[in-house]
Amino acid sequence: MTSLTERIEHARTRITKLVFPQDTNPLGTLYGGTALQWMDEVAFLTATRFSRRQVVTVSMDRVDFKVPIPQGAIVELVGDVVKVGRTSMTIQVRILLEDAMIGTQELAIEGHLVMVAVDQDMKPVAI
Ligand SMILES: CC(C)(COP(=O)(O)OP(=O)(O)OC[C@H]1O[C@@H](n2cnc3c(N)ncnc32)[C@H](O)[C@@H]1OP(=O)(O)O)[C@@H](O)C(=O)NCCC(=O)NCCS
Question: Residue 32 in 3-state DSSP?
């Protein structure tokens, strides 16, 4: 039988992206709305992997934009299950800005999203 810790580890989701011009604001750094879309995608994948259910986003909690991410940067998004309820899961999403030449990463954006497992009728179901 798989433990909760193992399920959480297996659900961890990483997506690497290159920041293209169409992803940026007029200052040439990653547009906040694009970042939120990417975060929702990672949270969706993480929650789906954890629950093996259809999930929807019910809440996007505080999101901190700590460091501007320039066009051309490599970023890694990491989703982790940090809280499990009856039908909901809280997913921490971090966006790490990577130094392409050295390989170091720094935390640029962080937020928490609550995802709920639902059935075909959009009713919450236990996970
Ligand atoms: C998600 C949805 C089905 C939940 O319905 P609901 O009537 O609020 O259901 P419940 O009150 O039973 O809550 C279900 C779970 O969500 C949690 N929840 C509901 N609203 C929440 C909120 N604003 N913030 C955090 N958690 C919330 C509840 O605490 C509960 O968690 P638990 O079962 O782990 O204790 C409904 O709100 C919905 O359809 N929302 C639209 C979803 C959507 O379209 N998302 C965008 C596209 S993916």
Answer: helix
